[in-house]
Queue: 2 jobs
Job 1
Amino acid sequence: MSDLRQLIDGAMAGQPGYNYAYLDESAKREVRRAVLKALCLPGHQVPFASRDMPVARGWGSGGLQVSLSVISPGDRLKVIDQGDDHSMNAQALRDLIAMTTNVETTTDAREASVIQTRHRIPEDELHEGQVVVFQVPIADPLRIVDSRPSVTRRMHAENDYSAVWLYLYEDLARLGASSFSHSHPVEVEGGYIMSPTPIPRHDLPRLDDAPFVSLFGAGREATIYAVPPYTRVRPLEFEDRPFEPERFKEPCFRCGATTSYLTEEVHDGRQVMVCSDTDFCRRARGAAA
Amino acid sequence: MYSTVREMAGAIEAAAAIAAAQSAVEAAAGYSGLEAQLPLLIDQVGAEAGVVAPSVCARALQQARGDVARAVSLVRAWAAILPRLENVCADAAEMQVLRRITPAFRAPEGGQFLGASLDYANRLLDLGGTPPISSQSDAPAVLTNNGDQDTPASFPRAGESLEQEGILARTDNPAAAFDRTRTNAADVAGRGAFLQLLARGETGALTSLAYSAQRGFGQRQDPTLLELRQGSLPVRMSRPDGGGTFTVAWLPVTTAEVAMYRIHDGRADARLTLGFGATTGKVERRAIAAAILDATCARAEQQPPAVREPSEDREFLSAILDGQEASGFVEHLKLPHHVTFTSDLDRVRQVQGQ
């Protein structure tokens, strides 16, 4: 009991009482086992006992558990929200991970070994050895066709994806276009259908045959899934109605990039489009100057 | 002892006085500040967090500036990384009962003991003088209002005789003890896991969903509270040297059993359905609501209706009753969403042919 007392006292007194990377070792082991299983079954949703975290559910608690379980001394950490390193929540998550692990942080995606992200893949070319941890709000791509996990688990197990194909077909027949905006479902290595998390369609091609590891953590929904490097990831599409990324009519107002994902911003009373990846945009401006 | 709810020899005043005096007893036991002033709020935080630690819950409430959801979050995250030394089962039959009422039975075996309750005291806001709590110094020695009788050491379950008679159907096999905070999320489908979810459920969500069943959403059903108990459960652990067990703590607990009578397909039930609910602490509506939802779900499982209403749908309830999951996800909308919203706009403009 004295060990317990010490831990409680330490924890109550402040950070020195906490374990390396905040989580206790058995929790990390459990997350790592789920990650390994997920990597062995690309796109398959692996349930785990999601811990209560010092951030609210729905605010990155799943990504945080994955990051804290895979990170080790010597890693360099980048955390973004909507592509922005300095978004409040990204800052809070980065501070928490850095404070409990002492790893270095960076905003340059090319230098980071672990990148925790909400809703974007950095614009930079990523390379082997990098781990991208996605924060997942809704893990199951079949939620749109049935809200019951018991039903969709069976569909996944039986490789029965007719409902989601029909959903896509009905969109095309009725609307003339798919209604998937972000979160367009993908087929992983010809097997499981997976939600790429709400990354925009612009980012989907980046997942295909990617050199980096993609880990997806859903804390509230207690699910982890993964895409190992060099894995085929294809958006759902019909041969005659191909998948379409978002289209932008103008380049980035700040850096002039024509290939990056843009979001709206008001500048001097005028609505302009700017890169959502703020660090990429900053460096592009520096190079142009 | 009281039988039906009738004023007998000042029972109502006595019950309210005991409830107020309990604060004084708690103060004498070392409780201070919020723990003494707002014991039921502390109970609610502890119950929703699934952690019985009043001083920690009080500290969390203060740190959260009174936001219950945030206080629960703080307590849960604090507890999540503490080592689990042992899992033990407490036997509900061992409860040291401070309060026991049986609305279904006028004079049950063992009797009824009103205990501490504000239920029948009028709700007139006291605008005079100092706040009515934690100001009393002379606490009664024994917290019962049973006249000359001491509360018995144990009571038979009020519904037991109905079970023996075959009128009350037990829900299913006794639920296995379960810890969903340490179990793979895919394995939380059993009734034990559901009962734990109900015990930790968000108080308002439990209440409104149970109310929806009473209000007629679902098959026509009429729950009756068989028994409500409030008291302390001993938590016993085995000695590491094998020399028997010892009691490490007394857990404040409220339990409720309801029986549900239903008419379905135009016919009356041959048997009543039993529902069980429990919560730590003394927020009694939590236990009653949990018992109703256990009964409605158990019944829907035995005889699936054509359409399951929310209160009958264990899978639905499992997804939405946890206050941390719900409040966290509702409030996450405050995070920036311009990347995904841009994608939405792109689709709408495309469909509009722009």
Job 2
Amino acid sequence: MNPLKVLDEYWCMPQPAERLAALRLITGLFALLYVLARGPHLASYAHFPPEQFRPVGVVALLHAPAPPFVLYATLALCIVSGFAFVLGFRYRLSGPLFALTFLWVTTYRCSWGMIFHQDNLVAIHLLILAVVPAADAWSWGTHGKPIPNAAARYGWPVRAFTWVTISTYVVAGVAKLQNGGLDWGETLRSHVAYDALRKLELGSMHAPLGAWTVQFSALFWLLGAMTLLLELGAPLAGLGGRVRTTWVLGMWGFHFGVLALMAIAFVYPLTGCAFASFFAVERPVGWCVGKFFALGRAPFRAT
Amino acid sequence: MHTVVGIDAAGESAPIAPRLVANSETLQTAVAIARAVGAGRKATRRLCETVAEKVAREADLADVVTVEVRSDKYEPVAYFTRGTTPRKSRLRASCRVPR
């Protein structure tokens, strides 16, 4: 069998328009709530000392911090376009606008010396959604219109979503191997201890469980090995089935462990949103959309 | 690691909350203090004075009389297994809270 044909069939397998729409609703809603919840924090960078400005990514276009009103205006635009994104309203405009403003405000936050990696996956997922027909179903103005049949144009973006997620874990696994080698457990132990120590000395909330467990070296050997296995084995999740479900549960457990041991919440994977593309999410989301529609408030076509 | 602490009249010290140093993000605050220390005495002094001004407006911190920027060296695992005393400690800047 021709491997390219197999790859093409896997990558471009027709999928329902509702699945992509469900990803728009899940990722869009997550990103919108994230920006709303973190708004005051994101806005606080408007008054950081200019000498601490170290632009990264798209913000490297700037040589100096933007005036405060520019940051406030971008945040406001991000929130407004976020609502439109979730509703699928004027999607050809709101899709790219929300993705780009989200990328901008989160990168601006990373341009002061501390890189917050947890925003990257959300930003890449939004950028994918921005350029694909994710508003062909369950969006503003689709009243009475038939939902298009399953097609490859709805399939490959879902695959791209999944493989971007998988790639982030592989990159994290490779980075751990480079930093700590196969015996990553000892590095992890030291990292958990340092994280708790730093938070205590800086007057912040730390994870008492992490501080207590650093005395057990063997535990960190086990946790380190499991983490490497899950991260480097992430591509297997692309096969689907039980392997995928086991991997997603394992990864979710890993993030829960990070929360318990380090008081660091990677909210996107912890809520399950990061793994939505691995499953037929149009079923639960369709049920929610149907209920919402039944309330007579939503301008969506429910089924 | 670099920290900003408040000292009361009895000489007791306690960390100043990250939101008064940089913003609510602890790791961002750690970077901001390190950047100021790395930039030299003037920048460290400026950070110290800025924090002291903010402390002066906080009713909860009415007992804090001095703000210090410190650099302490720890062994992370030993901190939790053998004791919290730093292996090395260095005062970078000290300033009175303006009240």
